[in-house]
Design a protein that fits this description.
Layout (H helix, E strand, L loop, with lengths): L6 H13 L1 H4 L7 E6 L4 E6 L8 E3 L5 E3 L2 H10 L8 H10 L13 E2 L4 E6 L5 E7 L14 H19 L15 H9 L4
Antiparallel strand pairs: 1-2, 2-6, 3-4, 3-5, 6-7
Helix pairs in contact: 5-6
């Protein structure tokens, strides 16, 4: 492709140009896809499936989208729109080490949902015009497993599949760095040739 940028950006752009958001929704990885369509005056944003790479938005009379809530608050302050400190969320964070999603310790700046497509318009009246969930974990659609043997078999199959995909011969020689922890041992013994 004649476009500049890394391979991931080029892949996302190629998929966007060929079928829009639905083609990007098939990708699976930790990241945040942001496409600015200057001709339509729109910003398209797709959060990764598990929310590994967080995104935050403020959208009262305009919008700010950012990967860090503090940076969003600073940008708003620079524009003369000071955010109020959310004492309740900060108290929750200090007590539990986390804040309940979508809240941040800045009132009005919320964390965006994982596995979700957002479309913002920055035309005459900047605003969020579309939001839809494109992915959620399969187990949310079915009852939880309760049989221990079934849980072990399912987890074993998932680990074996994950390790197989990451050790394919076409990826070259595989090296494994082990910490001697349970995660390392699980990955090692899930390999086809432990």
């Amino acid at each position: 492709m004649p476009y500049e940028g890394g391979l991931a950006a080029r892949l996302i752009l190629d998929r966007w140009l060929n079928n829009g958001a639905s083609n990007i929704e098939q990708l699976n990885g930790a990241g945040l896809a942001v496409i600015i369509d200057a001709a339509k005056r729109e910003l398209h944003l797709l959060t990764d499936r598990l929310g590994f790479y967080p995104a935050f938005a403020w959208s009262e009379d305009g919008f700010v989208v950012c990967s860090n809530a503090d940076v969003a608050a600073a940008a708003l302050a620079t524009a003369g729109r000071r955010c109020q400190f959310d004492k309740l969320t900060m108290a929750e964070f200090l007590r539990t080490g986390t804040a309940t999603q979508p809240f941040t310790y800045w009132s009005g700046i919320n964390q965006l949902d994982a596995g979700t497509y957002y479309r913002f318009s920055f035309g005459d009246r900047p605003r969020l015009v579309e939001q839809r969930r494109y992915w959620q974990p399969a187990n949310l659609n079915h009852p939880y497993l309760t049989d221990r043997e079934e849980i072990v078999e399912s987890l074993t199959a998932a680990l074996t599949s994950a390790v197989r995909k990451r050790t394919l011969p076409r990826l070259g020689k595989v090296a494994v760095m082990l910490s001697a922890g349970a995660d390392s041992r699980a990955a090692l013994f899930a390999a086809c040739n432990p």
